[in-house]
Specification:
about 15% strand, 8 strands, about 250 residues
């Protein structure tokens, strides 16, 4: 959903002591404030990156990060390049606003649904062009590349529902079952991760795979070769040992 429809003015009266610069109430409160301020800065950077990387236009799409029982989210209708530390927006897991005065993204139900049902620490929602195009064509992204395994398996398309509704959140959760990313029909993408970097990387990988499939499918008289589920299972097993080992 695009959040450009509401023109809010940032910078006025977000909770200063919760998102950077307040006196605090002791060491515990100070540590919590610092964590929220740091998470907000990372969230704003990621939101701006979605625009720079062409995954959204204007303020469409949204980003959230969970810090304890507080979910920081991008506000509705505010250009990301205008956001400051004083504009932090936070809600609890029931959706009650606990930080800031700007209204949260209209897609808050989707973000909260992910946090209530998974161990996610961050969620990224975009209107990426190729992924959105694929969402209008198939019920599931064909297995055109092994990186589908990084999202838990074949990427499903959630049935269309009006933006910002509980129905859309329910459809998304069904598509996410056993997955860390899905497509939203005629809408865009949702991915989550244990870090914001991971959630963002999954979004970028999903958009890239959709672009590959569209490009291969567009060749006249040809059809892209697809991986089998057995081949994908082998990739998932190998990915469990991927990366640097700390010791």
């Amino acid at each position: 959903m695009t959040d450009e429809m509401v023109d809010q003015q940032p910078g006025g009266s977000a909770a200063e002591d919760a998102a950077g610069g307040g006196a605090g109430d002791g060491a515990g409160k100070g540590a919590e404030d610092e964590a929220l301020a740091r998470a907000w800065a990372e969230l704003v950077e990621a939101a701006r990156r979605t625009v720079a990387d062409g995954l959204v236009v204007g303020t469409s799409g949204n980003v959230s990060v969970r810090v304890g029982d507080t979910v920081l989210v991008t506000p509705s209708g505010v250009s990301y390049d205008r956001l400051t530390p004083r504009d932090a927006v936070g809600v609890d897991l029931d959706g009650r606003q606990v930080l800031g005065t700007l209204a949260p993204t209209s897609e808050l139900p989707m973000h909260l649904a992910v946090y209530r049902t998974t161990s996610a620490a961050a969620v990224v929602h975009t209107h990426a062009v190729h992924a959105t195009a694929v969402s209008t064509l198939v019920p599931e992204l064909p297995l055109v590349h092994y990186m589908s395994a990084a999202l838990g398996g074949p990427v499903r398309v959630a049935p269309y529902a009006l933006y910002g509704t509980d129905e859309l959140a329910r459809n998304m959760l069904e598509a996410l079952d056993g997955r860390t990313g899905c497509l939203l029909r005629n809408h865009g993408t949702v991915t989550y991760g244990s870090t914001l970097d991971q959630a963002y990387d999954r979004t970028a990988q999903l958009e890239w795979m959709c672009r590959v499939w569209l490009a291969a499918s567009a060749v006249p008289g040809m059809a892209p070769s697809l991986l089998s589920t057995g081949q994908l299972d082998a990739v998932q097993e190998k990915l469990r040992g991927y990366g640097q080992r700390r010791g």
